[in-house]
Amino acid sequence: MEIKINAVPDGEKRPKPQDESKLGFGKIYSDHMFIMTWEKDKGWHSPTIQQYGPLSLEPATIVLHYGQTIFEGLKCYRTADNTFNLFRDDRNFERFNESAARLDMPQVPREAWDRALQELIRLDHDWVPRSGGASLYVRPFMIATEPYIGLKSSSSFYFMIITGPVGAYYPEGFNPVRIQVTEKYSRAGPKGLGGVKTAANYAASLLAEKEAQQAGYTQVLWLDAAEAKYVEEVGSMNIMFKIGGTVVTPPVGSTTLAGITRDSTLQLLRDWGVPVEERKISIDEIMDAQNEGTLEEVFGTGTAAVISPVGVLNYRGTDYTIADGGTGSTAEKLFDRITAVQYGRAPDPHNWIRTVRVPQAQQAQQAVAR
Ligand SMILES: *Cc1c(COP(=O)(O)O)cnc(C)c1O
User: Fold this and answer.
1) Number of structural domains, the chain?
2) Has residue 338 been placed in a domain?
3) Which of 256, 303, 338 to mutate for ligand 1's pocket (most ligand atoms within 8 Å of CB)?
4) 259 lines ligand 1 (CB under 6 A)
């Protein structure tokens, strides 16, 4: 597979953000993007890296009406000696193709994923932030591109990757969040789309999240759609509860996404000898533990924040403060270890890191050009 590279000339590159403490999340994009086309009779063709910029789509394009689209999210981290680390992107690749299968979209070949990521990040490595906690967010996605407003699967698709620098999630240290348990809305039904990263799930969550925010909470805690009894996820993160020394988390499946941070967290806890249980857990069991004083910690897991401690749970109109409302020791230890592996400061016994090759000479050259 040969990627055609239309590199942006130095004079046309956009200025890089100077103040990395003000990066935020999802507002700035790097100079280049990857785009590859699939057509029913041709398969994948024309892999290209070109300047980040607008797409041209007919108003009748399937993705705009029926949401035939999937995405992934991962990060590239710059280490102290300027190597560029991807964290478990093989898992993002597998999940992407599982999402594609569920949405009746074509599978992306491993070689295309690998080569596109390597080339794109090599070309835009100067966009990978230097300050602690900041990173380059990588967003692979696929969209249906056929113009057709009858309902059917598209006969053509784009597979694309865009990247952009994002700031430290906790620039001033951990900030435990306030969470509202919702019984009014549900996110995903059994055998539906909850287990895949597709637009519909996030569109379905927007109103619930706005209402929670208006009531003074950061995110929604989702219960199962059938009975509103079992806990599933928090916002777009997986959730864990430490009860009497054991970490309990809901199983993944058609209503709960198989998070890679969740999997990494469970692996570390097992390494450390902390008992873990993957099982259904009801909101009643959590409230009982809270009332008995055995609910030690609650935290979300996901690529954006890594670990997000929950300080307050609001359930049926009452605020419950978890332990002292601060960050628990397990959450803190997990955050420290996972980020240390990501930034190359800790050993990587599970082979979670894959390095993007950027020749030293090229790095020096770009540094001079800046
Ligand atoms: C992406 C996502 C997660 C977290 O997955 P990671 O691989 O850890 O980033 C959890 N839940 C939902 C709904 C998600 O979209």
Assistant:
1) 2
2) no
3) 303
4) yes
Q: Which atom of ligand 1 is nearest to the CA of 95?
A: 7
Token pair recorded at residue 103: 């949405």
pTM of the model: 0.96
Residues 232 and 285 in one domain: yes
Q: Is 302 in the pocket of ligand 1 (CB under 6 A)?
A: yes
Judged by DSSP in three states, 52 sits in: coil
Is 336 contained in some domain? no
- What lies within 8 Å, CB to CB, of 235 at 6+ separation is 205, 209, 218, 219, 220, 300
Quick: pLDDT tens for 271-315.
999 999 999 999 999 999 999 999 999 999 999 999 999 999 999
pLDDT digits (tens, 9 = 90+) for 224-257: 999 999 999 999 999 999 999 999 999 999 999 9
How far, in Å, CA of 285 to CA of 292, rounded?
A: 10
Q: What is the CATH number of the domain that holds 126?
A: 3.30.470.10
Q: Separation of 236 CA from ligand 1 center, angstroms?
A: 6
> Do 204 and 298 fall within a single domain?
yes
What range defines the domain where residue 130 resides?
4-167+347-369
**CA 42 to centroid of ligand 1, rounded, Å:** 33
What the block records as the tokens of 4 is 């055609």
Q: What is the CATH number of the domain that holds 198?
A: 3.20.10.10
| 193 and 153 belong to one structural domain | no
Q: Are residues 251 and 102 both part of a single domain? A: no
Q: How far is the CA of 234 from the centre of ligand 1 (A)?
A: 10
The Cα–Cα gap between 284 and 292 comes to 12
Ligand 1 mean position, distance from CA 347 (Å): 25
